[in-house]
């Protein structure tokens, strides 16, 4: 009688062997991916806040849409409060970007699960997270230009 080889040698047979969860995958495999992805999304929102507080009003004024800016300020009075504290808004957004970048850097070589479907999801999550981080940095730089550099150049 011939013995057939097993096809699933890389997975532990016990759910408790090797520090794995009920799916048989290592718990540490995505330990840094979730915080890195969350930090990237949070940095995207804080970078978007820099656009709302500083770049949008400057853009509207530069395009000659002062009436639209007046309507926006009357509809969203907190915009004035944010614009007055733009240095704090940019400091908070910069801090979030630094945190997200650090978490991205730490997670870049973390192992993905051995299951091909989960490994593909892991790699896709890393790519999307890096893309979101890059967009966040770009938004932050555009906001910083309109808040701090454009007034010196154009006004």
Summed up, what is this model?
The chain is mostly helical. It is built from 5 helices and no strands.
Description:
With 155 residues, the protein is mainly alpha-helical. It has helices spanning 33-62, 66-75, 78-84, 86-107, 116-154. The chain has five helices and no strands.
Q: For the record, give the distance between the C-alpha atoms at the N and C termini, rounded to a whole number.
A: 88 Å
Radius of gyration: 23 Å
The helix/strand series, from N terminus to C terminus, equals HHHHH
Largest sheet: none
State the helical fraction.
55-70%
Instruction: Provide a count of the helices.
Output: 5
Average pLDDT, rounded to a whole number, is 76
Q: Which structural class should the secondary elements be placed in?
A: mainly alpha
Number of strands: 0
- Low-confidence segments, ≥5 residues, pLDDT <50? 3-30
Strand content: under 5%
Shape: elongated
Name some characteristics of this structure.
155 residues, mainly alpha, 5 helices, elongated
Layout of helices and strands, plus pairs?
Elements: H1 33-62, H2 66-75, H3 78-84, H4 86-107, H5 116-154
